[in-house]
Amino acid sequence: xxxxxxxxxxxxxxxxxxxxxxxxxxxxxxxxxxxxxxxxxxxxxxxxxxxxxxxxxxxxxxxxxxxxxxxxxxxxxxxxxxxxxxxxxxxxxxxxxxxxxxxxxxxxxxxxxxxxxxxxxxxxxxxxxxxxxxxxxxxxxxxxxxxxxxxxxxxxxxxxxxxxxxxxxxxxxxxxxxxxxxxxxxxxxxxxxxxxxxxxxxxxxxxxxxxxxxxxxxxxxxxxxxxxxxxxxxxxxxxxxxxxxxxxxxxxxxxxxxxxxxxxxxxxxxxxxxxxxxxxxxxxxxxxxxxxxxxxxxxxxxxxxxxxxxxxxxxxxxxxxxxxxxxxxxxxxxxxxxxxxxxxxxxxxxxxxxxxxxxxxxxxxxxxxxxxxxxxxxxxxxxxxxxxxxxxxxxxxxxxxxxxxxxxxxxxxxxxxxxxxxxxxxxxxxxxxxxxxxxxxxxxxxxxxxxxxxxxxxxxxxxxxxxxxxxxxxxxxxxxxxxxxxxxxxxxxxxxxxxxxxxxxxxxxxxxxxxxxxxxxxxxxxxxxxxxxxxxxxxxxxxxxxxxxxxxxxxxxxxxxxxxxxxxxxxxxxxxxxxxxxxxxxxxxxxxxxxxxxxxxxxxxxxxxxxxxx
Length: 614
Prior knowledge:
single chain, rod-shaped
């Protein structure tokens, strides 16, 4: 099969999908056409048609005796003669019509069946009686006119013979014997011919009405047998046209093909619509959708190339889609054996941590506020030991503005050095500049499109904002619209408050952070935040395949100056962050240590299967 055939089949499939989406428009159009047809049956004026059939005969006595009688008459000429003023004038007198003879001739319908010598006369009228009277009047008027013309012709011939006979009689009076015999013969011949003409005039038969007009049983127009199917067919055609126009006017994405067709944005993964209202979650590795995420993970690994990379996952429209995609993508990358860190930077949503079955507590918010250390917020799921997660945290309102500050840039730069892949779950590009600021720290980005929630303009604006920050948009991930209440798994019961939760005062407000279990060595040099420019410049627009290619630094971050030891961490500001005091080696520790750490959340296999439902 060539490419043209594939393109045609794809276009037909898109139109079929469009008709399935807009079936109600097609049905409405069909019902509208049927309703118009039914209304027309009652509102349009009724038209009754009556038919009369006339057999045309030859008026020449000699030709009438011939076997080729029917070939001597041109019926097409006779059909036009039936519409002549002579015939329609007779009809006007018979039916008492106020129409002129010319209009009557235009209204009558005359047809000539093939291989016949008859004329079929049809007359339409508002009532059955008038239709019957009109058809019968035309038939009788035509026959009468034809007979009258024949009689007139025979009378003319008879008058000529009588004149000749009179001339012969005059000559006989003065003719001799021989001439008298000749004239007597002529007299006899003329007399015999005159006698024949007189007999022909007495038996003139120019035509015969073989089928008289009768009242029609019902109206011929509008005819329900023809009118209703025609209205239904016209309504279906109107519905299809309206469905196509409405689908083109609707600016919401309906299927994955619309993203590529309208926006020219490649679709890397498309999750089909499932039956029922069950939402997506952390998909099993061997499920069909789980394998699709594995293919996406391998494709992104091949595209980004060697080295550590930061991947941004954001939605074009607000919704839980970015959380679902970021969790499944991070899980798929972790199943390949890579060291993966999921950063839940969508502080207003805890869906990602709920899908992984992680306890709610201190997270990214407290880390940016300087209340905890990195090792206190890194969580692990027992089912995915190579996947670490930094949950949003409890103080999202206080840390919301810090996603766009230097603290977040230093944090991502430090995490880049520790993980093969750092997946950032970002808020929607439509909700603010958080996604745009995080795109400045990322190597590549994925746009999550929920159908039919997302509009084309939202996708176009999101891609443009990310491109302006220099991050390459690899493509879109399309999935059906998700309900956050349906996909969010309830967190496991907490027998006690986790150790990474900030201490609370009696009034319930957050107090100073809990000091680390093992204070850092004051003689050891403070670790500076790793620059975030470790990503490769080639990952912006094309796959990075050469590990030896030179890398350009995009963000040169200065090390955080050392601050005095004391209560500075309890009062964070725009210029300081406690990354210098964070033990970044806690993230690079083995999975066994993290599983044994009281700060790590572990789940039994049974609980993981219950929470990580597909």
